[in-house]
TrEMBL record, chain A:
This is ATP-binding cassette domain-containing protein. PROSITE patterns: ABC_TRANSPORTER_1, ABC_TRANSPORTER_2. It is a peripheral membrane protein. Signal peptide: none annotated. Belongs to the ABC transporter superfamily. It comes from the Bacteria. Its main location: membrane.
UniProtKB/TrEMBL annotation, chain B:
It is a peripheral membrane protein. This is ABC transporter ATP-binding protein. GO terms for molecular function: ATP binding. It comes from the Bacteria. It comes from Pseudotabrizicola sediminis. InterPro entries: AAA+_ATPase (IPR003593), ABC_Ni/Peptide_Import (IPR050388), ABC_transporter-like_ATP-bd (IPR003439), ABC_transporter-like_CS (IPR017871), Oligopep_ABC_C (IPR013563), P-loop_NTPase (IPR027417). Keywords: ATP-binding, Cell membrane, Membrane, Nucleotide-binding, Transport. Its main location: membrane. It is found in: Cell inner membrane. Gene3D superfamilies: P-loop containing nucleotide triphosphate hydrolases (3.40.50.300). Residues 12-260 form the ABC transporter domain.
C-alpha cells in the first residue's frame, strides 16, 4: 500500500485513555476505590516519529506504554494503532495485530528467560506468529542478530553470559523479529551504565531509520529524551501536563511542572551548574488513589491560584503544536467549561491536524 | 580548603580482592586519596569500577570471605582503620564515619520506628539516655527538613516517601556529628525533583555543620553541582583526580573525555549522534598488568598493553593535590 499522496495520518491515536487499578479493602474485600494510574490521556504518534514520554516514578508513564499494547485491560478510552482500535478487539483478533506492535522492556535481566538460548528467545515470536520452517527461522534470527550488532556465534548462548547492554540488544532483536511498525521502549536504558546507554540509543536510532519504526520512548532521563525524541509528553500523576515539540519544550517549557522538572536535572558543567536558577518543588507527589480535586499539580505548583484547586485543566493547544494543561494558559476557555468538566475531558487532543 | 590543613581521612595503596571460583577479582587496586576538612570529594565511575567497594573497605563493611582487604593504610585522624580491632571499628562506624546508602527503602529497618533508628547511634555512641536521645533525634529530623519532627519520630519507614526516607538516613548518619560522611549514590533511587531537594539539603547542611563528605555517584551532573574535587574510577583504579572545574574544563584521561561526551546535554547544541565508548568494562580477574581502559581507548599504544600507568600530576603539584591522571598517552602528550 502506497499512501504517499494522502495526508499523513497518525499511526497511533490515543483518546481519553484511562487505566484504573481497583482497591479492595475491609473484611469483605469490597471495591473501595481506584488507583488512577492513567486518568484521561490523549495523544497521537505519527509514522516514523519518536514520542518521548517523561515523568517521575508513579506518574503512569509505563502504564500508558503497557496499556497501548493492551498488556492491561484498559478501563476506558480508545487506542487506535494503524487503523484498528486495540482497546475493543477480541482476543483472537488482538493476537493477529500483535506482530505490528512490540515492546522493549526496562530490565533486560528480568525480561529474558534464563533457560532459553539467544536463538530461542529471538525466534520465539516467529514460532508463535509464522509457519516458517527452521531454516528460514534461523536465517531470520541471524539477520536480526546482525541488525542489532550481536555476533552470530552467540546464537546458542544463554542470557547470563551477556552484559547488560548486550542483553538489551537481545530484547531489541526479539521486538524486531516480526517486522513491527510501532515499538514501545519502556525505559530501555535506565538499567545500563552511561557509556553503554549511548550505544543502545544509537542502535535504536539506526534501526528506526533502517526499518521506518515509530517509537514511544518512555524515560525519566530528560537529557536522553531530548536527544532521541521528536516530540515530548510530560506526565504528572496520570495526566499529560504538556505535550510539545522537543526544541520548544526544552527551550521554553510552558507548564509549571515541566519547567520545574527541567530545572531539576543536574547540569554536567560546573560553571553553569552553580549559577543556574533552580526551581525546588516542595513536598511529594500525591497518591494517585486520591488525587487533588482540581489540577493534579496544584499541591506543589509555585504558580497556583484558586481556580487550580477547583477545576482540572484540560490539555489545550496554546501555541501551534504545543499542548498544555494549565489554567495559566486557559483563561478564556476555562470560564466556559467550568459547568461541564467531564464532557470536555474526552476532547483532549494530542496533536494538531 | 587550604593544602596545609591535615586531611581528616588519608587512604594509601588500598587493595581489595574478592576470591571467587573464577579466580581473584581485583576490585580495588592501589587506590590512594585523601579528604580535607570540610571538603566534598566526588567519586565517579560506572558499576563495577570499584567506587562503592573502596568506601566499604575503609570501614570494614565487606564480608570476609569473599572480600580480602589486602594492603594499604586508612588513616582517620591518627588511627589506621585497617589495623584496629572489630570492636574499635564498630565505635568508628556511625560515630566518626557516617554512611548514607543508595536505597533508602532497604537500608531502614521496617519494624522499628524512625525515631528508634535515629536514637540508636546516639545511645550507642554518645552515651545519651533515652530522653536525651529523643530530644536530639527530633532536632536532627527538623535539621534534615522533616516538618512536625517530634511527632514523626513515632512513624515507621513505610509511612515516609522515598525522599523523606533518604532524609531520615541522612539524619541517622549525622546523628553523632561524624568527621566524615560517606554517601553512596544517595540520590540515584530518587526522582529528579526529589534529588534536587536532597542536593539543596546537603549544600545547606555543609554550611551549617562543615563536615567532610565523600559523594559516590555515576551522574556527572550531580558532581558538577556539588563537588569541590573529583576522582574518576575505572576498573578498580583512580584514573583521574582534579578540582571539579579543572576536570570538566580540561579532562585528561581518554575515559573521562569520552564519558563527558557520551551524556547528552539538556542545553546547548543537540548532537545528531551520541558519542559512544565502544566495548565493555573490563573483567578484573587476576592482578592488573596493563591499563584497564586499553581495549576501549582510542589512543592506546603498545605501552598501554604491557604496563599499568601510574598517576602523574599534570600541573607540577603533588599527586592528589592538584590535577593528576593515570595514562601513558596523556603523560606523553603533556611532555611532547
Amino acid at each position: 500500500m502506497l499512501d504517499i499522496a494522502k495526508p499523513i495520518t497518525p499511526l497511533v491515536q490515543v483518546r481519553g485513555l484511562k487505566m484504573y487499578f481497583p482497591i479492595y479493602s475491609g473484611l469483605l474485600r469490597r471495591h473501595t476505590g481506584d488507583v488512577k494510574a492513567v486518568d484521561g490521556v490523549s495523544f497521537d504518534i505519527m509514522p516514523g516519529e519518536t514520542l518521548g514520554l517523561v515523568g517521575e516514578s508513579g506518574c503512569g508513564k509505563s502504564t500508558v506504554g503497557r496499556a497501548l499494547l493492551r498488556l492491561y485491560e484498559i478501563t476506558d478510552g480508545n487506542v487506535v494503532i494503524n487503523g484498528t482500535d486495540i482497546a475493543t478487539l477480541s482476543p483472537e483478533a488482538l493476537r493477529k495485530t500483535r506482530p505490528q506492535m512490540q515492546m522493549v522492556f526496562q530490565d533486560p535481566q528480568a525480561s529474558l528467560n534464563p533457560r532459553m538460548t539467544l536463538a530461542d528467545i529471538i525466534g520465539e515470536p516467529l514460532n508463535e506468529h509464522t509457519d516458517w520452517d527452521s531454516d528460514r527461522k534461523l536465517a531470520r534470527i541471524y539477520e536480526l542478530m546482525d541488525a542489532v550488532g550481536l555476533n552470530r556465534r552467540f546464537a546458542n548462548r544463554f542470557p547470563h553470559e551477556f552484559s547488560g547492554g548486550q542483553r538489551q540488544r537481545i530484547g531489541i532483536a526479539r521486538a524486531l523479529a516480526l517486522n513491527p511498525r510501532f515499538i514501545v521502549c519502556d525505559e530501555p536504558i535506565a538499567a545500563l551504565d552511561v557509556s553503554i546507554q549511548a550505544q543502545v540509543v544509537n542502535l535504536l536510532e539506526d534501526l528506526q531509520e533502517q526499518f521506518g519504526l515509530t517509537y514511544l520512548f518512555i524515560s525519566h532521563d530528560l537529557s536522553m529524551v531530548r536527544h532521541i525524541a521528536d516530540r515530548v509528553a510530560v506526565m504528572y500523576l496520570g495526566r499529560i501536563a504538556e505535550l510539545s515539540p522537543r526544541d520548544a519544550l526544552y527551550a521554553r517549557p510552558l507548564h509549571p511542572y515541566a519547567e520545574a522538572l527541567l530545572s531539576a536535572v543536574p547540569e554536567p558543567n560546573p560553571a553553569l551548574a552553580r549559577t543556574r536558577q533552580r526551581i525546588i518543588l516542595q513536598g511529594d507527589v500525591p497518591s494517585p488513589a486520591n488525587p487533588p480535586k482540581g489540577c493534579n499539580f496544584c499541591t506543589r505548583c509555585l504558580k497556583v491560584f484558586e481556580l487550580c484547586r477547583q477545576v482540572k485543566p484540560e490539555l489545550i493547544e496554546v501555541e501551534p503544536g504545543r499542548f498544555v494543561a494549565c489554567h495559566l494558559y486557559s483563561d478564556t476557555t476555562a470560564a466556559g467549561s467550568t459547568g461541564t468538566p467531564e464532557a470536555k475531558e474526552h476532547n483532549q487532543q494530542g496533536v494538531s491536524q | 580548603m587550604a593544602d596545609g590543613a591535615a586531611p581528616v581521612l588519608d587512604v594509601r595503596g588500598l587493595k581489595t580482592v574478592f576470591r571467587t571460583r573464577g579466580g581473584e577479582v581485583h576490585a580495588v587496586n592501589s587506590v590512594s586519596f585523601h579528604l580535607n576538612p570540610g571538603e566534598l570529594l566526588g567519586v565517579v565511575g560506572e558499576s563495577g569500577s570499584g567506587k562503592s567497594v573502596t568506601m566499604m573497605s575503609l570501614i570494614g563493611l565487606l564480608p570476609s570471605p569473599p572480600a580480602d582487604v589486602r594492603a594499604g593504610t586508612v588513616m582517620l585522624g591518627d588511627r589506621d582503620l585497617l589495623k584496629i580491632s572489630a570492636d574499635e571499628l564498630r565505635d568508628v562506624r556511625g560515630a566518626k564515619v557516617g554512611f548514607v546508602f543508595q536505597d533508602p527503602m532497604t537500608s531502614l529497618n521496617p519494624v522499628f520506628t524512625v525515631g528508634n533508628q535515629i536514637m540508636e547511634p546516639l545511645i550507642r555512641h554518645m552515651g545519651m539516655t533515652k530522653k536525651q536521645a529523643e530530644v536530639r533525634a527530633a532536632e536532627l529530623l527538623a535539621l534534615v527538613g522533616i516538618p512536625d519532627a517530634a511527632a514523626r519520630l513515632k512513624s515507621y519507614p513505610h509511612q515516609f516517601s522515598g525522599g523523606m526516607r533518604q532524609r531520615v538516613m541522612i539524619a541517622i548518619a549525622l546523628a553523632c556529628d561524624p568527621d566524615v560522611l560517606i554517601a553512596d549514590e544517595p540520590t540515584t533511587a530518587l526522582d529528579v525533583t526529589i534529588q534536587a531537594q536532597i542536593l539543596e539539603l546537603v549544600k545547606d547542611l555543609r554550611q551549617k555543620l562543615g563536615m567532610a563528605i565523600v559523594w559516590i555517584t555515576h551522574d556527572l551532573g550531580v558532581i558538577a553541582g556539588i563537588a569541590d574535587r573529583v576522582m574518576v574510577m575505572y576498573g578498580g583504579q583512580i584514573v583521574e583526580q582534579a578540582p571539579v572545574k579543572d576536570l570538566f574544563a580540561n579532562p585528561q584521561h581518554p575515559y573521562t573525555r569520552a564519558l563527558l561526551k557520551t551524556i547528552p546535554s539538556l542545553t546547548g547544541e543537540r548532537e545528531a549522534r551520541l558519542q559512544v565508548i565502544e566495548g565493555q568494562p573490563p573483567i578484573l580477574i587476576g592482578a592488573p598488568t596493563a591499563c584497564p581502559f586499553r581495549d576501549r581507548c582510542a589512543h592506546a599504544f603498545a605501552r598501554c598493553f604491557v604496563e599499568n600507568p601510574e598517576r602523574r600530576a599534570i600541573d607540577g603539584r603533588e599527586v592528589g593535590k592538584g590535577h593528576d591522571v593515570a595514562c601513558h598517552w596523556a603523560a606523553e602528550a603533556a611532555h611532547a
